[in-house]
Amino acid sequence: MRIFIDAGHGGGDPGAVSNLVKEKDLTLAISNRIISMCMGNPNLIVSRSRGVDQSVSLSERVQKAERFKAELLLSIHINAGGGSGFESYILNKMFKNKQHTEAMQTRLHRTIIDNIDFKDRGQKQANFYMLRQSSMPAILTETGFIDHEQDRKKLMQDHNLTIIARAHVKAIEALVREQEDTREKEQLISGSFRLKHHAVNRQVYLSSVGINSEIRHQFIDQDSYYRVVIDQTLDKTWVIRKLKALNQPYFII
Ligand SMILES: [Zn+2]
């Protein structure tokens, strides 16, 4: 899974500030920890909006995530304005695949809250730029309030930043496992035919390019079809790339 980590604020934009503690430093410390923890997991490919204290505009951040072809954009922030605890956000408007993003938020939110020592303020929705302008699922987390004395004390301790980062990584790993589970259940089909010999022809062709398949006889609204189902043990991403390159049809059910 391709993950884009956005450390909120930076450079000339300190974010929220309280008692000389700046949000931009905390988000950077947490994000850099997340990045190095993800590096050890071969299932994760990570990129980030910034790795140092620098100004990066919101549009640049989104562009970086788009260029990276992220499958999840995770924006890291610290809260302020009276309150205490952890909350997560997705976009508050209708958008493509919102249900999927909501499910990801639920998994991410629960995993993080189970692994940090902050009060649960719940899953929320808002019209934030990073959530609105990005085309991939995007979630923003706010861990603790910088202007809440106890939250700030926690955030000022390095080992707590490591715990917060690890909770985010555990959440990302839970999402990857979920994605793999649904992929395993999905069937990749390359053609559905009325006549069996057409299905056999397709199967022979696919086998000549290294893709094994089986033919399944199925009824759809009382019509009989022969479906060419790709071998479940093959790497679906590889098969799809190959079928696209060969201009062959496929669909997933
Ligand atoms: Zn912020």
Automatic annotation (TrEMBL):
Q: Which InterPro entries match?
A: MurNAc-LAA_cat, N-acetylmuramoyl_amidase_3
- One annotated GO molecular function: N-acetylmuramoyl-L-alanine amidase activity
> Is Ribonucleoprotein found in the keyword set?
no
Pfam families referenced in this protein's UniProt entry, alphabetically: Amidase_3 (PF01520)
SMART domains per record: Ami_3
| Biological processes per GO annotation | peptidoglycan catabolic process
Residue ranges of the MurNAc-LAA domain? 62-173
- What's the superkingdom here? Bacteria
UniProt keyword Hydrolase present: yes
Record protein name field? N-acetylmuramoyl-L-alanine amidase
